[in-house]
Amino acid sequence: MEWPAPHLPARAPKPKFLALFDIDGTLVIGIKVHKQSFYAALQEVYGVTAEIHWAGYSGLTDPLIIKELASQAGVSRDVIEAKMPAALDCIGNYHEAHYREDDGKLLPGIVDLLNVLERRKVFMGLVTGNVVKCAYYKLKNVGLDRYFALGGFGSDDGDRSKLIKIAIHRAETWYKFKYNGHNVVYVADTTRDIEAARKAGVPVVIIRNERTVNEPFNDPKPDLILPDAMYAREFTKFIEAL
Q1: What's the first-to-final CA gap in the chain, in angstroms?
Q2: What is the pLDDT at residue 124?
Q3: Half-sphere exposure of 133 toward its Cβ, with a 13 Å CA cutoff?
Q4: What digits encode the pLDDT tens for the residues 172-190?
Q5: Of the chain's two ends, which shows fewer C-beta atoms within 10 Å, N or C?
Q6: How far apart are CA 121 and CA 130, in angstroms?
Q7: What does the DSSP 8-state code read for residue 100?
Q8: pLDDT attached to residue 55
């Protein structure tokens, strides 16, 4: 599956600025179906039936999470890698079948922020550890899929910094975007996201959520921290100054 953007023409006018958004903890919170999809993949692809502990995986991509869970279950590295494509397909297919059962909810102010950016003609994409089908149905369930033209996904690579570069390349290839080193920002919520943005060479905005309200984000530091997405004016001032 490729990211569907039916509301956008195949050759839209050249966008001037690209805002790339993480999904989990940035746009929505709640991972019920996503978590279930990993256990489905463990059972169907790797034959794991034992209960595996779910640790904190915020900021990790789906390939890295399935590696961690399968390793806990005693699956060998070679088998994990060999069956990874099937496991990622299973995660996406499970989400497609069960997305209406999800517990995802929008983070405060997100819709207003996206509408502000849309009015300002800021081009919007995704950079998420979710496989593409999981990302699409997760956002479709809360009505956000229409805002995003493209993305870099966990089904593309397990390295989030590479996903940022993949998303930029797709904007350049599909929509004639011209990256100049100052016209892309990554919007996310974890320290791992900040590290990925630094590695990719793009500025990063952290939007706090209920899990990170007291997180200092000191090492590494983001370029901007917002208490929530209701600070749209501060966000737009930041990107205008880049």
Answers
A1: 34
A2: 96
A3: 16
A4: 998 999 999 999 999 999 9
A5: C
A6: 26
A7: G
A8: 84
Q: Which residues pair with 152 in a beta bridge?
A: 127
What lies within 8 Å, CB to CB, of 43 at 6+ separation is 49
User: For the segment 102-145, what is each residue's pLDDT rounded down to a tens digit?
Assistant: 999 999 999 999 999 999 999 999 999 999 999 999 999 999 99
Give the pLDDT score at 50. 85
Count helices and strands in the chain by DSSP H and E runs: 9, 8
Domain 32-101 has CATH 1.10.150: yes
- CB distance 123 to 114 below 8 Å: no
143, 138, 57, 63: CA torsion to nearest 10: -140
What CATH class is the domain 18-30+104-240? alpha beta
pLDDT at 6: 47
Q: What number of other Cβ atoms are within 10 A of residue 118's Cβ?
A: 13
Q: Distance of CA 13 to CAs 10, 17, 48, 88, 113, Å? A: 10, 12, 49, 34, 22
- Sequence ranges of the domains in the chain: 18-30+104-240, 32-101
How many Cα atoms sit within 13 Å of 110 on the Cβ side? 25
